[in-house]
Amino acid sequence: MTSAQSDERIRREIEAQINLPSPPAIAVQILNTVQSKESSLSDLERIISADPSLTGKMLQIANSAFYALPNRVSSITHAMSILGTNVIKNIALSFVITSDLRNPAIKTFDFDFFWRRSVTTAVSAEVVKNLTGKKDDDIFVTALLQDLGVLVLFLNKGEEYTPLLTKCRTSNNDCSCLIKLEQEKFQFDHQQVSCMLTRSWKLPLSISEPTCHHHFPENAPEEYRQSAEILSLANLISTIYNGEETTENLAFLQDRLKEQFDMDKKQTAKLLDDVAEKTIAILEIFELDPGEMKPYSQMLQEANNELGRLNLSYEQLVMALKESKEKSERFARELQEANAKLENLAFRDGLTNVYNHRYFQEIFEKEIARAERYNGDLCLIMFDIDFFKKINDTYGHPTGDQILIFLAERIQNAIRPSDILARYGGEEFTVILPETQNAGMKVFAERLRRCAMEPFEVEGHSIKITISIGGVYYDLNSRGINKQHLIDTADRALYLSKQNGRNRVTILPLSP
User: Fold this and answer.
1) Orientation angle between helical segments 246-261 and 265-285, nearest 10 degrees
2) pTM for the whole thing?
3) Partner of 469 for a Cys bridge, out of 45, 171, 398, 505, CB 3.0 to 4.6 A?
4) What angle in degrees, to the nearest 10, is found between the helix axes of 483-499 and 357-374?
5) Ramachandran assignment for 276, one of left (phi > 0), alpha (psi -120 to 50 degrees), beta (any other)
């Protein structure tokens, strides 16, 4: 597969699964004004000045330690003349986008942490850029937006995406952990979503292209490779201040700065202090709580003071570190196991241990979307036990429950690994058959019917049952028919099997 074909496949996958947010209206105005040959600087000034809050923040950042200008800036016009149109544009875009993409009502995602980390990355990118001597007015906003794909994926796939974020956070892995899980789950990752989003917003290539490779800068086209490397270093610095495994990441950063800029440990510490001091100032302007962020030298001094008070020997320190690491690893494993159990409980039927109604509804929707995306075949079977009430009345409900358990086990052993068995409710079950045509479904349904007829041995009783089955086939000619219509058709086919004598299979065609 060529690079162009790969990009096209990823684009189709993202478009099929993700609703990309539109840029804020004022951001569109700013971009159009900057890109238009007919617009003047006064047009940009007018757009920004129309929003008093934005104007105030622009002047705050222009007068902050971030730019360390010799004289106070009193107007947007003055700021443009000193910082340049491009810098002003990017500062304005940064405020507008971060303000628009924050939703405190959603409690399952820490928006403040996400943007605090992003702002730290943006400041870090600006500091690292100055080391390279590269002129890149876009690097701040590029770094700010580089992980926007994480936010977009959460907003689109919250229930599916949250376990991925949790797994990587508890296992203390870096971005490669999340990217691997995303590729396995969705066939694309947050880096690719960020890239597609910035392209769809028609941001300059100097912004959109480095975001495509910020985690793997070696893959970037030569024109954008240095910018991508700056973003990668900035992300590492941000992880030191906003993540775990600080010591390990610090050593990694030191090695990279030594290799690229011949920086020693003191120079690295000074760079980290510079990032922290500037980030704390910028976070206040973005109305974000800096949390416990403090300059690296202060963190180091506090740690040394604490060790001094403890008065521990070297051997005691090694032992304490080993115990702490083991405890942390054990806690992470226990948390992952607990999350897996909770997820299993949420999607499994408590009696039969097959998938439950909730999971069936979610996965069936995805299988329909997959069939449409790849022009595949899909079948749905619904079946239930004939005269089940009579079994409960004759042998008692505990025996009826055992019949349900044994039937579910028997059917589970009869289906393919790709098929999905779920308890729909009561004595009714469903089987989703991906990549199965109408003829194959008929053969499969008959096999299930015969499979259920073998007697069940329950508490000394040999109990015979039969099942009635209904099925529906979803093919290329059925595109556009919704999930509920498919379920209703299969249910109607099941009803006809009951009406026509039970212990039989009925397949109905889909009708518009």
Assistant:
1) 110
2) 0.61
3) 505
4) 110
5) alpha
CA 399-400-406 angle, 5° bins: 85
Residues facing 366 on adjacent strands: none
In SS3 terms, 99-131 reads as HHCCCCCCCCCCHHHHHHHHHHHHHHHHHHHHH
Is residue 322 exposed (0-12), middle (13-18) or buried (19+ Cβ within 10 Å)? Answer: exposed
Q: Produce one character per residue of 180-201: b if its CB has 16 or more CB atoms within 10 Å, e if not.
A: ebbeeebebbbbbbbbbbbbeb
Measure the CA–CA gap between 187 and 14, rounded to whole angstroms.
9
Measured CA to CA in angstroms, residue 396 lies from 78, 79, 352, 401 at distances of 86, 82, 17, 9
The token pair at 490 is: 């299969």
Which of 199, 486, 201 has its CA nearest to residue 371? Answer: 486
CB 296 within 8 A of CB 274: no
Taking a C-beta distance cutoff of 8 angstroms, is the pair 142, 210 a contact?
A: yes
3-state per-residue secondary structure call for 434-483:
ECCCHHHHHHHHHHHHHHHHCCEEECCEEECCCEEEEEEEECHHHCCCCH
Residues 6+ apart with CB under 8 A from 352: 404, 405, 408, 409, 423
For 337, counting Cβ atoms within 10 Å of its Cβ (0-12 exposed, 13-18 middle, 19+ buried), the class is: exposed
Instruction: Examine the pLDDT at 149 and tell me if it is beyond 60.
Output: yes
Whether the CB-CB separation of 353 and 404 falls below 8 Å is answered with no
Quick check: helix, strand or coil at residue 505?
strand
For the chain, what is the radius of gyration of the CA atoms? 30
Give the start-end residues of each E strand in 267-347: none
Which of 365, 498, 489 is CA-nearest to residue 422?
A: 365
The model's pLDDT over 159-216, given as tens digits with 9 standing for 90+, comes to 788 888 877 765 444 567 888 888 888 888 899 999 898 888 888 888 889 998 888 8
Task: Kindly report, residue by residue over 491-501, the tens digit of the pLDDT.
Answer: 999 999 999 99
Say how many residues make up the chain: 512
Q: How many CB atoms lie within 10 A of CB 2?
A: 7
Question: What does the alpha-carbon distance between residue 144 and residue 495 come to, in Å, rounded to a whole number?
Answer: 57
- Contact (CB, 8 A) for 422 and 357: yes
Torsion sign across C-alpha atoms 409, 414, 420, 422: negative
Q: Return the structure tokens found at 379.
A: 């079948």
Which residues, 6 or more positions from 30, have their beta carbon under 8 angstroms from its beta carbon?
44, 47, 48, 89, 92, 93, 96
What counts of helices (H) and strands (E) characterise the chain? 22, 7
Mapped onto helix, strand or coil, the DSSP state of residue 506 is strand
Tokens of 17: 């699964």
